[in-house]
Amino acid sequence: MLEFLQFPCRTDNFGMLIHDPASGLTASVDAPEEAPIRAQLAARGWRLTHLFITHHHGDHVEALAPLKAATGCTVIGPAAEADRITGLDVHVKGGFRFLFGNHAVDVIDAAGHTLGQIAYHLPGAKRLFAADCLFSLGCGRIIEGTPEMMFASLERLASLSGETLLHCGHEYTLANGRFALTVDPDNAALQARLAEAERRVATGAATLPVTLAQEKATNPFLRAGDPAIRAHLGMTDADDLAVFTELRRRKDKFKG
Ligand code: ZN
Ligand code: FE
Questions:
Q1: Are residues 163 and 178 part of one domain?
Q2: Which residues carry out catalysis?
Q3: Parallel, antiparallel, or unpaired for β 74-78 and 50-52?
């Protein structure tokens, strides 16, 4: 059984360690900040063997070089961003599968926030590491890609089993939820999720992971087909991509 350890890094990034007791391997999903990652490794007595990099942004790769220098770990990351990330050893892209110990890791194309972003899915453990593509109650800003690209990426992630536990690059749930309520105000599942997230944050706990089933019931960016959201936007007859694009446009302007 794999062990998963989630902890805060930087202002609102998540650190994530995956440990395989059978093989002794330990991976960090992205490398947001050296000190907390090393502290968590030391506290558990784990030796870092792998980095699973999702995209080239500084808040995800800042600690890549020092962690690699200190541990000699193998750095896996997006082939499409290999020219923008120094130190990648293994280039992967959507559709690739590799083994971590005896555990399959599937790479999913999650482009849109950046052009080459990838997500990592561990089907055996039912865990998804969606980085800055899918957030709880939200999605990443479309910085390099197009709405079409982001929409297709979100559909790929949302097509995984509803029992899958979603991990994200950032703790953005409350801010996302406040926006979500403006476009889906009568959604009781969303109201309940936001109340639960507020309780968790008030006690210093993380709002993640969350199941994909719950996200599909509450996250407006996965609900472009929902009649209530469409009616709220005055887009009853629009296609899903147009609804998604309008949701993303409104979120970009939203001052919560
Ligand atoms: Zn990013
Ligand atoms: Fe980020």
A1: no
A2: 55, 57, 59-60, 113, 132, 170
A3: parallel
